[in-house]
Amino acid sequence: MTRRFTLFDTTALTFGFAFLYVPLLVLIAYSFNDSQLLNVWGGFSTRWYVSLWHNAPLLTALRNSLAIGFLSAAIATFFGTLAALALVRYTRFWGRPLFTGMVYAPMVMPEVVTGLSLLLFFVSVGAERGFWTVTLAHTTFTMCYIAVVVQSRLVAFDRTLEEAAQDLGCPPVRTFFTITLPLIAPSVAAGFLLAFTLSLDDVVIASFVTGPGTSTLPIEIFNRARRGLSPEINALSSLMLLVVTVVVVGSSLVTKRAALPTR
Amino acid sequence: MSDNALPATQTPETAPFSRTPRLLRAVVPALPFLWLLIFFLTPFAIVFRMSLSQPATAQPPYTPVIDWAQGLAGLWAALGELNIDNFLLLADDYLYVASAFSSLRMAAVSTLLLLLIGFPMAYAMAKAPENRRPVLLVLVILPFWTSFLIRVYAWIGILKPEGLLNTVLISLGLIDQPLQIVNTDIAIFIGVVYCYLPFMVLPLYATLEKMDWTLIEAAQDLGCPPWRAFWRITVPLALPGIAAGALLCFIPIVGEYVIPELLGGPDSLMIGKTLSDEFFKNRDWPLASAVAVVLLIIVVGPVMVYRELETRRLEKAR
Question: Which residues form a coiled coil (chain A) (predicted)?
Fold first, then answer.
């Protein structure tokens, strides 16, 4: 009874969601505007989507971003899962407090500081800056997010299953791959997806550690956005919004369906 | 905290993993540990050292450079030349002090605005019918997954002098001249509040949703007016969520770079932007490093508070 939905609540939700979504809808509307000017509606047109398709620098940057995102998320998933195992299952090893600190620190580090420190590191070891330095940088900061996501799953893990397997003579490594890994797989997958998204979204760290010749999509968008609005970026942004919407709504429908039988 | 997560009946020694071969046991923590030592701690140490160096018009653009050919002697010679001049310069120069304080002020005001907008939303979401809540939750999470950069970018088209907001306001006859919003602090506030709203709403919703609403009912049955019940019951019970949301927003906003760069003007002072300008425009690596160290010190305080709150929350939950 007390959870009564009042007029105030309706107003709060309406304004809140309008605030969250109107700017994105405006952006999508601009992407179909034939005119380059903001305050002129030149009619409906898909020409910016067509010219986007022929924009070689943007397409190269997109390829770079996808490759960096995929590679760094894959490496980070490996190291992040190991880090989560170390945090939950290994209560005693040399330097554990330092390790715990290092897993959490990159998440609260201001991006400019992470970017600067990694750049100075790459300069001092004489690494050639470009694709690989961005990949390594992204791996480092995303593995910490994966570690936290996987860790939360491992904490709630029913370890009697592992014990049962081992009591029946299953070797430890096999136990890990047949029991542990399948059970924590959803969180590992979620961690991978989060890492991929974070990498695809990062502009600050990438602009610090990249070198001449390698540009990522966020860097391209950022550089164009600094000069104002560009119709092609409007089109590109709308496409990216569409992809994210499909993935998020799709995955929430899937998890909802998966959760239904247990209720 | 994760140490205590082991079931009470099990000590680490009897845990299944102890049957793993020794070498393998060592590898699991060692690999991520090594990675973080190389790519997190070492770069951090380099920044710290760099903040004590002096800029130079050379390649690399700082002194002293450690002369490894001389071995330890070279290292000592370089260490002897390190000093805190950069920090003295920062403390002495109005611009840097102002940018540090301005960042803190921007972050504090934004966090307050976020709370004012986020709380009613989270509150209404928690009161919505149970079958509607998942949909509302997805609606909050969706912008969270979309590109940060695109969300900032979207506001440029709205706030520009010839943008949507001004066009609408002029055609309604509310203003004659376009308002100059882009390149001001107001634009930064709008961008920050917009981008961080999910970070504020989600923890608030999580605490409000779990709240025992019969308490409010009891208070009202005993004659407590709704507003008073809200202040005396809802707000105190939501306090963990308020603290989590506020810190989740405050910490990254202090070091924010993209939003002031895209929406703010040349006079907008944010320490993240100062760092980047020192590095890219002035090519003063040591001074940029000193700014980085200062920024870290500023962030450490709220982070400690956050950790303390988290530990307390987890202890309570157990």
Answer: none
Q: What CATH class is the domain A55-234?
A: mainly alpha
Last residue of a domain, one of B46, B66, B81: B81
Which residue does chain B place closest to A87, by CA atoms?
B2
pLDDT tens digit string along A5-40?
Answer: 788 888 889 999 999 999 999 889 888 888 877 767
pTM equals: 0.85
Same domain membership, residue B169 and residue B262? yes
DSSP string, B135-190: HHHHHHHHHHHS-HHHHHHHHHHHHSTTSHHHHHHHHTTS-SSPP--TTSHHHHHH
CATH (domain of B121) = 1.10.3720.10
Most B CBs within 10 Å, among A90, A116, A193, to test the B interface = A116
pLDDT tens sequence across A62-104: 999 999 999 999 999 999 999 999 988 887 788 888 898 888 8
- Report the pLDDT value the prediction gives residue A69, as an integer from 0 to 100: 94
Model ipTM?
0.86
Pairwise CB contact (< 8 Å): A244 & B44? no
